[in-house]
Backbone:
């Protein structure tokens, strides 16, 4: 197991009145820099910077960034969700590293598609079947992971199969095991438990291990 323990800090982020949002910083005790090219190969829509090194990814509308000794996650609802998402990401890194001999590392830096590029591949009927006011709004939300391609029924029709296939190859996809408030930090170890964690299966708090 590559990541055996980590320190988790969850902070409240100022946003619109009446709402609250959180961000998480995972400080690692091991260098995961060598894992990033393997993640770049397996995470569709990831943007890799070999010189930094760093890897940015969007999942479920959340911004996620990996560095050699740190992982950052934004747009979280609360601390419970932060722990669940972080645990899933730690498990992802550990699984990817364990499978590195099966994966060809990818050092290419890919550019994330913009809303207009995605919009041009949509049916552009503005039919609102996706429950968005326009196809361009739908494209904007697709890029950041707020909606899914399946939400557009017109796009699923046979005549749009080529465009759908291209969009699937361009956009980030959900993967298994990546998972619901003020600033708080805790130490976690790689089996998933912690001082306020209810998840299991990847990392555990140092205090509980001891």
Residues:
């Amino acid at each position: 197991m590559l990541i055996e323990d980590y320190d988790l800090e969850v902070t409240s982020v100022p946003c619109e009145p009446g709402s609250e949002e959180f961000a998480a910083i995972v400080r690692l005790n091991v260098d995961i820099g060598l894992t990033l090219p393997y993640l770049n190969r397996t995470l569709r829509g990831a943007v890799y910077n070999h010189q930094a090194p760093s890897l940015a990814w969007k999942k479920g509308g959340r911004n996620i960034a990996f560095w050699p000794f740190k992982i950052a996650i934004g747009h979280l609802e609360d601390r419970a969700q932060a722990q669940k998402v972080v645990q899933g990401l730690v498990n992802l890194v550990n699984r990817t590293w364990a499978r590195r001999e099966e994966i060809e590392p990818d050092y290419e830096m890919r550019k994330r598609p913009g809303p207009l590029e995605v919009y041009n591949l949509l049916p552009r009927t503005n039919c609102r079947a996706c429950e968005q006011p326009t196809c361009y709004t739908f494209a904007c939300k697709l890029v950041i992971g707020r909606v899914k391609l399946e939400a557009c029924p017109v796009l699923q029709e046979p005549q749009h199969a080529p465009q759908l296939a291209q969009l699937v190859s361009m956009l980030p996809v959900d993967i298994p095991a990546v998972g619901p408030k003020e600033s708080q930090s805790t130490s976690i170890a790689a089996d998933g438990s912690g001082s306020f964690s209810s998840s299991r299966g990847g990392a555990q708090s140092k205090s509980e291990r001891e």
Q: What stands out?
A: Residues 6 and 28 are 5 Å apart (CA to CA).
